[in-house]
């Protein structure tokens, strides 16, 4: 209920009327304005010179503008319900006032339209305001230092600097020219990391510097790919990157970051929440050397150190050290050390060490060490190490290694180290069907890089007499190209062997350790054959195994033939395989 009269009163001063009078008494002019605006004035005739003669020529102007023209700052206006109260400005000028007020409208110079959501600020004290829905603004400024400069910015309009020489309460309309070139492209965020002095921060207005809004560059983030997954990933990245600056900002901060492309600098800032900061509503446009956030903070960037009790959010770059109790969110690049107990998100490149006890995400390139308790995701090029407890994802591994349980890379110049490694473009992959002296039928999948890959294998004998029921195994391997379609590989696997269905149900399995070597020969675009000897050790088997009746896969026992007196014995066997392979 208390908000409604304010909204109604605001509309009274913003009502547009047209009036033209010449040399008429003030009270007659006020009555005409009342009739045209549909409201009433309330005033004391003794404090206003109501019989003084005035002239007004206003075409489609707001009541506020007309009253300012009539009274020249000698009368102040207050709204109450359907009344506009006129009071004489009795405030005496102080000898050395500390502050003064500016108010007025932000106006399109070409059309005369009042511009809502324009940013008005003073770059030294960071005093700021935003024009309301009617284009009206009011800002309180200090009378010192000697030079006060008001900056006005509006998206799609050319920025304007206004030097304030008369430090008194003043009605000051400001005209802005439309930025006609902005329709052709978009401005690039131009971040300055240092200023000459605190009282003279560098400010740049890139009125005629244009580029694309997307941070992605052809050599940094996601390359063109026909796969639907890559397309969705790229679209999602661009949408998140575009909306990043407003994700942690208040409504006023979001408007300022949209309007203002200038960079402000402060040596130190502190905040309780993103919208409660020593940098006030301009925090999203300020680069700080040191930033201390009790719960969460929001800024354009950090040069040396940022500490957040819960979250840190930077639209631009971070250099030095960034520490957060829960998460760090950075819109561009990070150089240095970044730590969060839960999540690090960087929409640009990282150079240094990124550590999180849970997850790390980097949208650009990475040079250094990305270390997480659970997982790392990196959409650019890796030159360094990805280390995590569960999974790593990288677009391209240029140098260094991935080390985790599961590793994925679009392409890689080095081997990934983990239980499951998958390199999409230039990786080593084989699906193999084989037979050997131990199992009549084996199916095997190999994935990773040729220098180091994972082996997953499953073997069966069904109900063949004196043969194990089956086996399942895992291991590692390496392969070397010999040229002209030939390749040599060596695999080491550990297998659990079920001697029969009874042992399978009781989980009483023997162990088979197997070193298999093979010579592979290409026989087509996707097929190859392989053959070679193997060295085997079977443990925990009291029954032994029978001779293989196939002459080409004869068994050569090491340390004697199996009998019922031994549990461990070895042999040299042989394997023949047909392989379905990738394009390598």
From TrEMBL:
It comes from the Bacteria. This is Secretin/TonB short N-terminal domain-containing protein. It comes from Dyadobacter subterraneus.
């Amino acid at each position: 209920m208390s908000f409604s009269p304010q909204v109604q009163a605001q509309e009274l001063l913003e009502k547009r009327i047209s009036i033209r009078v010449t040399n008429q008494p003030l009270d007659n002019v006020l009555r005409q304005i009342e009739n045209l605006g549909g409201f009433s004035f309330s005033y004391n005739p003794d404090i206003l010179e109501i019989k003084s003669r005035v002239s007004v020529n206003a075409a489609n102007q707001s009541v506020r503008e007309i009253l300012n023209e009539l009274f020249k700052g000698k009368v102040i206006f207050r709204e109450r319900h359907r009344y506009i109260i006129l009071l004489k400005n009795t405030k005496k000028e102080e000898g050395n006032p500390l502050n003064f007020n500016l108010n007025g409208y932000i106006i399109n110079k070409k059309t005369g339209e009042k511009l809502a959501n324009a940013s008005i600020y003073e770059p030294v004290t960071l005093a700021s305001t935003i024009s309301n829905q009617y284009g009206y603004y009011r800002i309180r400024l200090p009378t010192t230092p000697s030079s006060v400069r008001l900056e006005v910015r509006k998206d799609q309009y050319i920025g304007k600097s206004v030097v304030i020489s008369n430090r008194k309460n003043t009605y000051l309309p400001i005209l802005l020219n439309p930025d006609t070139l902005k329709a052709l492209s978009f401005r690039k965020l131009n971040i300055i990391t240092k200023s000459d002095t605190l009282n003279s921060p560098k400010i740049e207005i890139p009125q005629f510097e244009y580029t694309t809004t997307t941070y992605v560059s052809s050599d940094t983030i996601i390359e063109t790919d026909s796969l639907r997954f890559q397309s969705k990933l790229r679209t999602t990245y661009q949408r998140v990157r575009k909306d990043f600056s407003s994700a942690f900002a208040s409504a006023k901060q979001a408007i300022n970051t949209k309007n203002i492309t200038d960079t402000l600098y402060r040596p130190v800032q502190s905040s309780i929440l993103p919208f409660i900061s020593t940098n006030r509503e301009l925090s999203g446009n300020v680069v700080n050397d040191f930033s201390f956030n009790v719960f969460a903070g929001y800024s354009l960037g950090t040069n040396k150190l940022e500490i957040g009790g819960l979250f840190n959010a930077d639209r631009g770059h971070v250099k030095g050290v960034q520490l957060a109790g829960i998460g760090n969110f950075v819109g561009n690049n990070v150089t240095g050390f970044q730590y969060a107990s839960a999540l690090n998100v960087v929409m640009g490149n990282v150079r240094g060490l990124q550590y999180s006890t849970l997850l790390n995400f980097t949208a650009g390139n990475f040079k250094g060490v990305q270390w997480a308790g659970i997982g790392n995701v990196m959409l650019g090029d890796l030159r360094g190490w990805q280390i995590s407890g569960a999974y790593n994802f990288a677009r391209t591994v240029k140098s260094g290694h991935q080390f985790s349980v599961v590793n994925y890379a679009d392409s890689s110049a080095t081997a990934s180290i983990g239980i499951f490694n998958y390199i999409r473009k230039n990786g080593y992959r084989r699906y193999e069907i084989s037979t050997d002296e131990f199992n009549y039928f084996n199916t095997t999948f190999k994935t990773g890089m040729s220098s180091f890959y994972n082996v997953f294998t499953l073997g069966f004998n069904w109900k063949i007499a004196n043969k194990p029921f089956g086996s399942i195994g895992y291991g590692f391997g390496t392969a070397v190209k010999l040229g002209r379609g030939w390749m040599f590989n060596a695999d080491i696997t550990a297998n659990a062997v079920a001697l029969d269905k009874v042992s399978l149900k009781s989980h009483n399995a023997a162990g088979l350790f197997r070193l298999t070597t093979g010579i592979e020969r290409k026989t087509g675009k996707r097929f190859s054959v392989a053959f070679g000897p193997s060295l085997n050790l079977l443990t925990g088997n009291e029954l032994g195994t029978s001779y293989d009746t196939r002459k080409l896969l004869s068994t050569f026992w090491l340390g004697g033939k199996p009998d019922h007196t031994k549990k461990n014995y070895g042999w040299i066997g042989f394997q023949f395989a047909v392989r379905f392979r990738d394009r390598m």
